[in-house]
Amino acid sequence: MPVRQRFRRFLVSMRRGLHVLAAPVKGDNGRGGLFIQSYRGYGSSHRVFLMGRVFRQPGFGATMREDRLWRDLIDLLRRLLRKPIAGAQVRVRYKGTTAVVETDRHGFFRVDMDLGAMPSDVEWHSVELSLDRPTDERATTTGEFFTPTHRTGYGVISDIDDTVVYTGVANTLKMMWRLFAQGADSRVIFPGVPALYRGFHDGPSGNQGNPLIYVSRGPWSIYQVLVEMFRMHRIPNGPILVLREWGMKRGSILPRRARDHKLDAIRHVMGLYGELKFVLVGDSGQHDPETYARILREHPDRVLAIYIRDVSADPQRSEAIARLADEARAAGCELVLSDDNQVLAEHAAGQGLICAEVIEAVRDSVSESAA
How far apart, in whole angstroms, are the C-alpha atoms of residue 258 and residue 5? Predict the structure, then answer.
């Protein structure tokens, strides 16, 4: 590729990445002040859980909105300079239901509220967020959350790191270069993941709208990049639970261990969804097999399958997972270990979790990646 063409491609990718990184602060139109950032949530027929954060961010450069590049550069600088607000009171409104929650010392808030009767045929819902204290009439935003419908057959809880995306998700610059400079053909997403996850979302009938909930060990700062990555690769939307700050203890500057975070998060999700059954997807590199095996012991009738991407070359690790697979099989659940999404798709189709056409879509994706 000629040098000029490579340089032009670099500039285009830089501008796209810059726009995504600057996106979280754009809700105030450059005026500064208090700002609420909402993350996608999830709900049941009567309850909702979502997270967000309250910041105070500087306001400057509002008159430069006609130049997108300079506007994005300024907004990125404003993002770097913003400060979390502890003790802010966030008012949450969904139709006729209202609740007020308070931010922690890092500015995070968690909404866990009763909603009453919910429509059974709507997947995504809007919720209004505003500030009671400190007062700023401009600090309002709209959040969104997912609820299963009457068509839902099961749910999926999936790890992101080394399961959906290659190692390096915590390296924001490296991931963004792959994503924006190399586009949808970059080696960011494992081959076959988008087709397989669309198959999970659609279910065997093709219209189940099964919820997918993603968990990540990365920091909240990459949330917007992950959302854009999923959009570019047509991976089904779903809440992304970042485990770095999940369950942080009072008085401690260190969060709990990631495996404890994930266990707590999965328990919360399964508790919210009552009797809904789940498929659990992870990788062999961390503690996903052990965590999922523990969930299976606690809910032997609610885990349909466990899929583990094999990223370890350690024979002892493979033997340990094989023992967990034997334990799962004795409980009536299959734990499948493979580095090939086609193998996972074939098993899922055999279990009636996805339609058979998904196998071909996954196979084509894997073959194109290997070419």
Answer: 43
